[in-house]
Design a protein that fits this description.
By secondary structure, the chain is an alpha/beta fold. The chain has helices at 15-28, 68-73, 95-107, 127-135, 187-196; strands spanning 4-9, 32-38, 47-48, 57-58, 60-62, 83-87, 111-116, 138-142, 155-160, 163-165, 180-185. It starts with a strand and ends with a helix.
C-alpha cells in the first residue's frame, strides 16, 4: 500500500531543498514525479525553489477550492504504479485537501510526500498540519537550530520593526520584504518574548 508522508520543519530548515532532491531521486529511478503547491504561496509562481540550492522545478498550482483528487486524476497518464506526488507549503492547504491526499494514497495507489510548517507564528497548529498528524503514515521532523540559542527550533517569531507580534492572520507568506521578518526559535525563546508582552 502506498503512503502519505509528512515532513515538517521551521523556516530555513531546507524543506523545499529536501523535496527537490527527493523528487530528483525518484525521477532518476524511473518514477513519474509531479510537484504541487498552493497558489497562496505566490513566490516563484508555478515553480518550487529553495534558497539553499540553485535550481527549481516547475509545479502544478492549485487554490483552496480545488479538489485534489479530481485535479490529479485528470492529469494525462497518471495511472501508474510508480507515481510519486510532492506537495510543498502544505500549511497553506485546507483540511479537506489533506483528506483528498489520503484518498489518492489509499484508493488510487499513489505515494505522496508533503512538506511544510507545523506551527504558525502564534504557536498554533496549521489546520493542514493537524490533519496530516492524524492521517499521515509517517511523520518526520526536518530539524534546525534556534536563531537565538543552541536549542532545536520548533516555532517562529514574527517581528515587525524588530518587535515580536503574536496575534493576527496565521496564513502569511514568510518571505516578506520591508520591516516584517520571521525567526525560527525554540519554545523557550518564544515564550521569553511572549511573556514580556502579556
Amino acid at each position: 500500500m502506498k503512503k502519505l508522508r509528512y515532513y515538517y520543519g521551521c523556516m530555513n530548515s531546507m524543506k523545499s531543498s529536501t523535496l527537490l532532491l527527493k523528487s530528483y531521486q525518484f525521477e532518476s529511478s524511473g518514477c513519474k514525479v509531479l510537484l504541487f503547491k498552493p497558489a497562496f504561496d505566490s513566490r516563484d509562481y508555478g515553480e518550487i525553489r529553495s534558497r539553499a540550492i540553485t535550481y527549481g522545478r516547475e509545479c502544478n498550482v492549485f487554490t483552496k477550492d480545488v479538489n485534489l483528487v479530481d485535479m490529479v486524476l485528470s492529469i494525462p497518464d497518471i495511472k501508474s504504479d510508480r507515481v510519486v506526488l510532492f506537495f510543498d507549503e502544505i500549511n497553506f492547504m485546507t483540511k479537506e485537501q489533506i483528506r483528498q491526499l489520503w484518498t489518492l494514497s489509499k484508493y488510487h495507489n499513489m505515494d505522496i510526500f508533503c512538506y511544510g510548517l507545523k506551527l504558525s507564528y502564534n504557536n498554533k497548529l496549521f489546520e493542514a498540519s493537524e490533519e496530516l498528524l492524524i492521517l499521515a503514515d509517517t511523520v518526520e521532523e526536518i530539524k534546525s537550530m534556534c536563531s537565538r540559542c543552541d536549542n532545536k527550533a520548533t516555532t517562529h517569531l514574527r517581528l515587525i520593526d524588530d518587535v515580536p507580534v503574536f496575534e493576527g492572520e496565521d496564513k502569511i507568506i514568510g518571505d516578506i520584504s520591508g520591516t516584517e521578518r520571521y525567526e525560527s526559535v525554540c519554545q523557550v525563546c518564544y515564550h521569553k518574548e511572549y511573556d514580556k508582552r502579556r
